[in-house]
Prior knowledge:
Pfam families: DIOX_N. By secondary structure, the protein is an alpha+beta fold. About 25% of the residues lie in helices and about 20% in strands. It has helices at about 15-25, 40-55, 60-65, 110-130, 200-205, 275-285; strands at about 1-5, 5-10, 30-35, 70-75, 90-95, 145-150, 165, 175-180, 180-185, 190-195, 210-215, 230-235, 240-245, 275. A hairpin with a 2-residue loop joins strand 8 and strand 9. Helix 1 (about 15-25) crosses helix 4 (about 110-130) and helix 2 packs across helix 4. The longest helix has 25 residues, at about 110-130. The radius of gyration is 20 Å and the shape is globular.
Amino acid sequence: ATATPPPLLFSDPTPSLHSSLLSAATQHGFFHLTHHTIPSHLPLSAESVAVSLFSLPNHQKQLLFPNNWPLGHEIEDDEDSAASPGAESFCLGSLCSTESITNDLDLDPLREFTGEMEELGLKVLEELASAVGFKNPARDGLQSQLWISGGTNKPGRVYPYVLGLHYQIRCQKQSLLSDSGWVSVSGQTESVLVTLGDIAQVWSNGKLKKVRGRPAPNLDDATDNPHCITMSLLITLPVDSTVFPLIPDLVENEEGGEHDSPNNNREQRLFNSFSFEDYAWRVYNERLLLKDPLIRYRV
């Protein structure tokens, strides 16, 4: 299926913005954000640096970006074809730092891009929490990761997140796995494709639709560049976090309860609490599961 996500103007007045956010989040789980604050030159500069990372010799990639789950450099094994290389990616923290201090890499454009995207994502999350009605978490309880992928149209590793921000440098379709199945999303130049993740769905007590993993370039057109670079900023959680609905005044959904209970008019809890680290490890290593990994935590 091909979907055209609704465009949201971040400069809209609050009531209009909240109405648009609520509609897009509950019906689609993704949307295009326009009139944002990301300078148009910055993504191009960051992409140029990202391209240089893939040009490094393998031994230097491993030295500068050692694998420290989920951070670092990784080349996945391609289970479909022994002759085809797997997805290659870098997962960098918000500071985009390397292990070695003696290198000639200038990562400042990546750091600046990450910082701008992170600030935008936190503002979107704040507005989304207000629109949906869940508690907005403190910023020090969140983390950001910049995922850079290249050389394949496969989605690569999956890591749980609250919000994903994907700057659209070019007008190119993206493939993503939503609650309604695989969809091809039309591109919109200089907009930010925002995807809501599994953690956002739990926080909203199931009100929001979600996207699993990161969008991947749709390379059906033979003229497309198969070595394109994708950069996604994920707002996620520290590994020692516990995930649970953030809707106030939830009640347990116990069968056989009194029908005249004063709690009957209150919202029922749809998810049990769970360890973020255990969940993240499972979805990361099992990749895109055929079944929704949140099913086991539903009440």
